[in-house]
Amino acid sequence: MSKIKQAGLLLGIIGFILPLVVDFPGLSLAGHLTMSIFLMAGIFWMFESIPIYSTSMLVILFQVLLLSQEGFIDYSGMAYSPLPFSDFIATLASPIIILFLGGFVLADASVKYDFDKNMTRVLLRPFGKQTVFIILGLMLVTAVLSAFMSNTATTAMMITVILPIIAKMEPGDPARIGVTLSIPFAANIGGIATPIGTPPNAVVIAALNQQGLDIAFSSWIFYAAPLAIVMLFVAWRVLLWLYPPATRDVALSLDSKLKKSPSAYILYATFAVTVVLWVTENLHGIKSSMVALLPIAVLTITSVLDKNDIRKLPWEVLWLMAGGIALGISMETTGLAEWMVSAISWDKFGYLMLLAVFGAVALVMSNFLSNTVTAALLIPLAISIATSGIIEGPEGMILIGLVVALGCSFAMVLPISTPPNAIAVSTGMLETKHMIPAGLIVGITGLIIILLLSVIYWPLIL
Amino acid sequence: MSKNIYILVVEDEPEVLDAIVRDITGFEEFFPIEMADTAEEAREIIQDILDQGDVIGLILCDHVLPGDNGVELLVELQHKEETISTRKVLITGQAGLQETVRAVNEADLKHYIAKPWNKEELVEIVKELLTDYVLDKVDDVLPYMKVLDGSRIAEAIRKGRTVTDN
User: Could you tell me where the beta strands, DSSP code E, fall in chain B?
Assistant: First the structure.
């Protein structure tokens, strides 16, 4: 284990022990125990001393042992009423997790039957041959796909699409960098547009659900898609400005044949029906998590996905999310989040200043940490601020939730910021020093536009 | 712990050996290159590499060598568990049909390069076979994307789903 990870391991253990030996005034016993878990998990997530999904499992383990009715601590006579242990483990199959599972199933089936490649080929056709517009086309297609598939899988696929394009460019052409960067940027931006686009969205939605706020699939799209569209254009212009193409036209040839087997057709139909049902949730009222069971059932009944495909689903991402959601539950029910938030007098901040602070912290942290972990650590605090009345009501809560979720997805400065960024640098077509200025401009602009939307758009539709 | 993946070049004429190594020098950053001028020396080097806990991804082997010949060495490697996955290539002007058939049938020969070789062709074959090896045996293939066949590796990540959102 590297020195850093060893240090993290030690710090995490210290972090766990600290609240057990130090008394924090105003914090209940349950709050102290939750703080132990919070500090340990936060440190282990940051340093990745153990895999991030196993930190999540460790969270649930300690919650069951220390914070549940069936655990080792007796809370009779105290303010905290312990939850049944099944509540903690139920996070592994909470509605938002099932929603994501439905998304994973559709995405994996799409990859298996090359549906993603075929959609790309069709969607790119209208964009012609000019380099400038091909880049826009690539970004739009990447964003649309990554709104429904994992940002990482979309990036991997689009890299195979752009490598032949780049191979035909002159070695010194800045467009090589621009085209390669456009993919992870578009994938990260596209991921914010739907609840299933990226795991941080799930953590935030789950936290809002816990407060009794249900966010419909279509509602989220109304909130987030405009931001995605605007930022795609901004990122496009920024990349063209930083890395202007040397040649006017590019040669784009995509070979992929639409699969016509019965299984493929079942996939296309299931995909279409599921997405339509999701996107029209406000019209028919069937919850998106319920709709998610449709592709799961249909694709496995018909063996479009078989047992091996099921095994290859990214279950560790679901575990990662579940742990984050579970931690949030404890931080809320034991009063830890409220206690942490009350340490700072937030009422001195203006409303917009508060959103800006949370957005900026989310943006900076998620550049260095996993986006999901950043969301998991910040959202309980954000919600606590909302419940303490500084931000008004349910609208305020959704607003700050959106700021945190979307802020987490705009971290694109370094290869370690998100897996799509890492993939782009691995192609060898660009170096980190090319990514940094573009990532900074796009990230900061994204934050500004999020704040703008908080003032002029979201209050109107929430 | 990630293992180093070696390329082993076995050739008895020093100028030819140098020429081969020069041609494939582009891979050296990710795949350390070892040289041997006899089959015996090759065996020693292979054992050293295996003792270190590393692996041999590719062997470029001449056939006519002092002592045991190239095909003999390759067949031997095919029968050892630690080197069965090593991609085996003959670079030679002097292997007869019978020996070549033996190399194909008993040593799973992946490619036969006739001397004199073409540099681009050699580099292409090395790239392709190392990509085969890495996709077969390595979990995290992302770092190899820029030096090997980027398209195949990206496709493997897309289908293999070993890199995920987090």
Answer: 5-10, 33-36, 55-61, 87-92, 109-114
